[in-house]
Design brief:
Number of strands: 5
Helix content: 10-25%
Strand content: 25-35%
Order of helices and strands: HEHHHHEEEE
Mean pLDDT: 87
Protein name: Putative enoyl-CoA hydratase 2
Largest sheet: 5 strands, antiparallel
CATH superfamily: Hotdog Thioesterase
Shape: elongated
EC number: 4.2.1.119
CATH architecture: Roll
Oligomer: single chain
GO molecular function, one term: 3-hydroxyacyl-CoA dehydratase activity
Structural class: alpha+beta
Low-confidence stretches: 1-19, 159-163
GO biological process, one term: photorespiration
Distance between the termini: 47 Å
Pfam families: MaoC_dehydratas
Amino acid sequence: MLIRNLVLGRLPSLRGFSSAAATFLKTGDILKQARIFTSEDVLEYSKVSHDSNPLHFDSESARNAGFEDRVVHGMLVAALFPKIISSNFPGAIYISQSLHFRLPVYIGEEIVGEVQATNIREQKNRYLAKFKTACYKDGSVVIDGEAMVILPSLAMEQVTTSV
């Protein structure tokens, strides 16, 4: 019977099982990920979003607007939040995200994205989680806000390493 199920692809889900002890999300937990945004990232994001603001491509335009140099799209930087959540909880469903853009992010800067679970409640065999979200450069907040997410499980698939 097991061989037949293997051939037909009918096996019970093994998701959440591992030889190592599972780590479960709890209120207060912080997940982080670092990234350096490149000129290529900005160009590719612009192609998808159709945001061709010269602040992202022309240093002189950026300086004339009061910036030090070309600025990374704020929404590209904010994409760190769903990346962190989905890499730890595959199948997570984003419900909402508030954002406050505090400081510009320049190409080549290392940005650390962070999500902190502030509230978790079970709802119909899934979990509604509220996260405090923030991105930092050199310890200063560049973006902050809150996210609401439906998680299929509290078991983390991948533990994000500290930065």
